[in-house]
Design goal:
- By secondary structure, the protein is of the alpha+beta class.
- The chain folds into two domains: 262 residues, Metallo-dependent phosphatases (Purple Acid Phosphatase, chain A, domain 2), CATH 3.60.21.10; 117 residues, Immunoglobulin-like.
- Helix 1 links the parallel strand 9 and strand 10.
């Protein structure tokens, strides 16, 4: 089942104006587009073409035509290519990134790691010396023409996306855990692409490459958001903190279209900079003014009836109140929008409305939890893989976003578990009949939302009893932590729990029949799908 929505509007390729600027200025006598606003002191202009790369060599040949109506950005403003595929954008002379926004039915080149290549970094002197050997290498003078190749590739109305929350390996050993726990089971995936929602690694940026090598075995394009553990922690401030990420993956804030949907990835991690002694500094959730302008500029080009998916690392409720209202205010023009985050190592559906500035009903946000679960911690199973439950009691895993036109649905998958494993029932295995009415049943519906309906019954043919959603600590998680505390070193134990937003609670029926009965739980999720689980209970 999908969330239903009305489809309207046209493809982004058909738009013909300059976002936030009222259209291209008339061409100069040299027949080259001029930037749409007056330049500020010291600004340069990046020029180039977006072209049909017919021979797939990445270079614009004399006979390879330019593509009109394609969006190109400097991370703040957006230009649209003219009839010959040309654009012009002002850039900072010392630190700039120019990138193409992939339109529907076209593809950007992929590198050997299946990472889309769609950006040009202009850093004449490269990153500060303190960030070496990572960071951005010196780019030298600005290229006379920054050209972006695209190749046609039809994209369907219906497709799937793999969603990973914090993979967050600390070591090569953790990358091996990810390989055995998750990637092996996804081999042969038919997803259109993958999207990681930040904290790709855990502060060690040298792990980017082996992680990318692992993801590349899935043979699908992979996009990424930046997380607080993906920063150059030696950077003096926020501006340089994403240099290593950008040098490897491109801009930390960008957008692209796939099929009928628009994907916007935002950098919402603001780094305060290293301390005076060189140790890592703090960070907060924050969107720069450039990121907000980019978001507004892109949304201004998206027809109201088309699906928008916004991805970030830190959930938007962590933004300060003014930034929250600005963010949700921009999304208000697009009622068919979904936003995604990770970061908290728990998963949760949220619905935002007028209280945060969203004026189009309710906005659906999903915090996807984490592929590393509880930071790859906890007791190991027979395969040597830690249990690593998320702090909400859900198992580590990944999500699947399914798109069908302007509709979408979301599915959670627990690592190395069957697709039907969607909830955990916590109840004693043996209960005295006289104690049944006081015996609590706690059900963790891993992907549950406040809109779900959850019921139970004891024995086939008995009456279904509604359960009440009650955020609290998951009892199974608490029991697991207590077991680990008896023998596992503290540094390897599960982290402290968080109140789970997807627990449902009830009590067994009074005076149930004696003997062993099957306790059944069923839930209907916000997409109308029914999930179920069973647990035998002996009534004495």
């Amino acid at each position: 089942m999908f969330a239903t929505a009305r489809r309207a509007g046209s493809s982004l390729l058909l738009l013909g104006c300059l976002s936030c600027a009222g259209g291209f200025a008339s061409e100069s006598r040299s027949n080259v587009p001029e930037p749409a606003r007056a330049l500020r002191a010291g600004e340069l202009v990046a020029r180039g073409r977006v072209f049909h790369d017919e021979d797939a060599d990445g270079r614009r040949g004399a006979r390879e035509r330019g593509l009109p109506g394609v969006l190109v950005s400097n991370g703040s403003e957006i230009a649209i290519t003219d009839a010959e595929g040309r654009y012009a954008l002002p850039i900072d002379p010392e630190d700039a990134i120019v990138f193409v926004l992939k339109p529907r039915d076209w593809s950007t080149p992929l590198d050997s790691f299946e990472t889309p290549r769609f950006a040009y970094l202009h850093r004449p002197r490269g990153s500060p010396q303190a960030l070496r050997p990572h960071g951005v290498a010196p780019s030298g003078p600005l290229r006379a023409s920054i050209d972006f190749p695209l190749r046609p590739r039809p994209e369907p109305e219906r497709f799937e996306v793999l969603l990973f929350g914090d993979t967050q390996p600390r070591s090569l050993a953790d990358i091996d855990l990810l390989a055995r726990d998750v990637i092996a089971g996804l081999a042969g995936s038919r997803a259109a692409f993958g999207l990681s929602l930040g904290d790709l690694v855990h502060d060690d940026l040298a792990l980017f490459e082996p992680l990318d090598e692992l993801l590349a075995t899935l043979r699908i394009p992979w996009y990424r958001a930046i997380g607080n553990h993906d920063l150059d922690l030696r950077a003096g401030g926020d501006a340089d903190s994403d240099d290593s990420f950008e040098s490897r993956y491109g801009p930390a804030t960008y957008a692209f279209q796939y099929g009928p949907a628009h994907f916007i990835v935002l950098d919402d991690v603001h780094y305060h900079g290293a301390r005076a002694d060189g140790s890592p500094g703090g960070y907060r959730a924050g969107l720069t003014s450039a990121a907000m302008r980019f978001l507004g500029a892109y949304l201004a080009q998206v027809p109201r009836g088309e699906l928008v998916v916004v991805a970030m690392h830190i959930p938007p409720d962590r933004l300060d109140p003014d930034e929250q209202r600005a963010f949700f205010g921009l999304l208000s023009g697009h009622p068919l929008a979904l936003s995604l985050s990770a970061h908290t190592h728990l998963q949760e559906h949220r619905f935002f409305g007028p209280e945060v500035g969203y004026a189009a009903g309710e906005h659906h946000h999903l915090n996807v939890g984490t592929t590393s679960g509880g930071w790859w911690l906890g007791a190991e199973d027979e395969s040597g893989i830690p249990v690593a439950l998320m702090r909400c009691g859900a198992p580590k895993g990944w999500w699947r976003l399914r798109v069908d036109g302007a509709r979408y649905a979301l599915d959670f998958r627990a690592s190395r578990r069957p697709a039907a494993y969607q909830m955990q029932i916590h109840v004693p295995g043996r209960v005295r009949a006289e104690d049944a009415a006081a015996t609590e049943v706690v059900v963790n519906v891993f992907a549950g939302s406040p809109r779900d309906r959850v019921e139970m019954r004891l024995g086939e043919g008995s009456e279904w009893i509604p359960l009440a959603r009650e955020p609290r600590f998951d009892p199974f998680y608490l029991e697991q932590g207590a077991r680990e505390s008896r023998w596992l070193p503290r540094e390897r134990r599960l982290p402290p729990p968080a109140k789970s937003p997807h627990l449902w609670v009830g009590r067994l029926p009074a005076l149930p029949p004696r003997g062993t009965s099957l306790l059944e739980v069923r839930s209907v999720d916000l997409f109308g799908r029914e999930l179920s689980a069973r647990r035998p209970i002996a009534i004495e």
